[in-house]
Amino acid sequence: MYRIFSHFSRSFPFHLKPKLLNQEGNHGHLRKVYKKISVFQSGLSKLHPKRDTRIHQTAKSFHIIPDAINIRHCREADIKTFLQLTRKEGWDNTEFDCRAVLKLDSSSFIVAADDADTPLGFIVVFDMFSDTCYSGQLIVKDAFRGRGVGRKLLTALWERIGEKNLCIYSTENLIESYRKQGILLESIRSIAYRGIITSGCKELKTNENECDIVPLTDHIWHDLLAYDSIVYKGKSREKILRLWFVGEYVYTVVAFSKGKVSGYGSFIKADDNQYIIRTVFGDNSKVVDEILDNMLARIPLGAMLTFVLLADKEVPSRFSGFEPTIVTQTMSTKFKIETESDKMFYICYHFV
Ligand SMILES: CC(C)(COP(=O)(O)OP(=O)(O)OC[C@H]1O[C@@H](n2cnc3c(N)ncnc32)[C@H](O)[C@@H]1OP(=O)(O)O)[C@@H](O)C(=O)NCCC(=O)NCCS
Q: Which of 10, 145, 176, 350 to mutate to test the pocket of ligand 1 (most atoms within 8 A of CB)?
């Protein structure tokens, strides 16, 4: 089925790069996190040898002719394949996320398919702001990696964005490759964590509450959007937030201090025992703690929780048993998306 040509071998620097973390110069705790990730991944690799991303691997010694790969939009049946692939990588995508992005833009999933129309890989891209496209979740089926499928998806991405600014979430291993393609501006660095909810995660409740935490309803949507627009320095993320923060399995709250909105937070129940914190923004860590108290009260003991924390924020003691899993760097081509990073704590990979 696949036309195969040219003997080809390459060595990929699969390991996470401590040097990149150290370039920041000021993040002693990042070095510790890197060490933890290495230990965690080496544990994973014992269970799943194919997942050991730290070793140098030689790519497959043959290539699929790029012409045999078709680029097309996503179909209903592809969502299942996409989710299977992302789950294998330990990413936190859910069906809800996919459908939200597809509602925003039905052409947001670019699919690379073989000549029998079976998907081999995916990349997500959509217009985040009028001048900026967001892209992420570049993924290729393991058995087809190192044969040009990713490159073909990236070519389709470049065609799709045209003259717009591109903002992309890169995992550590791809930063260098993206730099080579001219994606040079680096902004938010974040770290994903995963762990089990214990009573210790929920025990921080204080009597000196600084704010009122109110579940999101229609009449406070404008408060949430106003706060988000402060964090994003005047930009509006309304379209995607309206798709992301409401739904059967989504819980979103807004915090008010002295009658004024001081933060908000959201999580999603991915399945019976898996929860993902999507976003928690707040004026300070006290507000963020109170939002977490409120949200964690709705997550059962023993559930698996995933979240993505900005790399310059300390992991709160309630999550001290959680393991760091993936380090991610936001990169863009023409300009950085400016944010009030003091107010950003927990973020979501799937949109800027
Ligand atoms: C990253 C991934 C999508 C690349 O797809 P692929 O089909 O194997 O890649 P290709 O053979 O087309 O190579 C595309 C480019 O990516 C680079 N690349 C591919 N895999 C890489 C890896 N694991 N580490 C570093 N660079 C890699 C290649 O060097 C190549 O760059 P070049 O064009 O400058 O030579 C694929 O390895 C994958 O699905 N990985 C797991 C998910 C992941 O890490 N996604 C990245 C999220 S941003």
A: 145
